[in-house]
Amino acid sequence: MTSYSSSTPLPQTIGKPATRALHAHSIYTLEELCMKSLEEVKAYHGVGPKAIKILSVALHTHQLAFRVD
Asked: What is the mean pLDDT of the chain?
């Protein structure tokens, strides 16, 4: 699997509330997540500091990043 795969799933370890929050904003993959800013994602109800850390590491691992405004 390459780091530019068009369908890298979200990490399952972020927890159900964070997963539901991201799905509510039509975010199902890391590629979709990197279209959002860190501040925007932090504001989603259900996405806490633990989920943000896990998501940040996953993005970095796949050579992706949150959008910079």
From this structure: 92
